[in-house]
Amino acid sequence: MSLLRSLLIGTILAAASMPAMAADTPLRLMSFNIRLPVESDGPDYWETRKPLAVEMLREQAPDVIGLQELVKSQADYLARELPQYAWFGRGRDADGGGEHMGVFYRSDRLAVIESGDFWLSDTPDVPGSITWHHLYPRMVTWALFERRSDGKRFYLLNTHLPYREQDEAARVKGANAIAAYLATLPPGIPVVLTGDFNTTPDSEVHVVLARTLQDAWTTAPRVDGSEATFHGFTGNADKRIDWIFVRGVQLESVASVTTRWNGRYPSDHFPLVVTLRLP
């Protein structure tokens, strides 16, 4: 037997004896309110902190990122700086402009089988629709992902609920609309819901979602970082308003990302990252 053939056979046998990486490789999913560009943020304006956002994402290396408050110029910048990611999403306004519930994902690892949007209103299929006394349109961007290595699938939903104190009734209606949509999905496919819910875990919004989903922060076996997520660029967070919910997965950990550079943060929210395995 030639040396080349021996080496080839040895390589094939070694590969066959190795465990399939896909079965043991966890997924990392992030929820990140990136804070839209507002000049009144002064030293924390997007143009100043955008390299921090890129550095944070490179360090965390999530497979999927559900972003809130994203506008097209920010998405374009992230896409240039992070070429390993593809992204999708449309603006919440009727013409497709405005804030996006944009989703970035590792296109070498994941494929989008289908995706879409619905609005949190009485007419969810009407782009830009506003009811329930919202100031602005509110929406959900979703996708069915398939992992390229093993064909396993999961749904991701990403949202941003209204922020005013008087919007609690609208937030509850939004949570019920999300729950109703979840009820239409195939029961055997895992689900991850990311978002800025602009309310705390003692709210009716949380109760509605927790009926069929797990709050990663309270159910993951490992929890790291600050429980509160909104800090207004101070680093001193006082409200846990960013949540990741899951269904049908094996949670390994959840963490808030509190990294800063020279006293500056990538956003006024701490991102959340869950590590999980698909069944």
From TrEMBL:
InterPro entries: CCR4/nocturin_mRNA_transcr, Endo/exonu/phosph_ase_sf, Endo/exonuclease/phosphatase. This is Endonuclease. Residues 30-269 form the Endonuclease/exonuclease/phosphatase domain. It comes from Pseudoxanthomonas japonensis. The keyword Nuclease applies. Residues 1-22 form the signal peptide. SUPFAM superfamilies: DNase I-like. One of its GO terms (molecular function) is endonuclease activity.
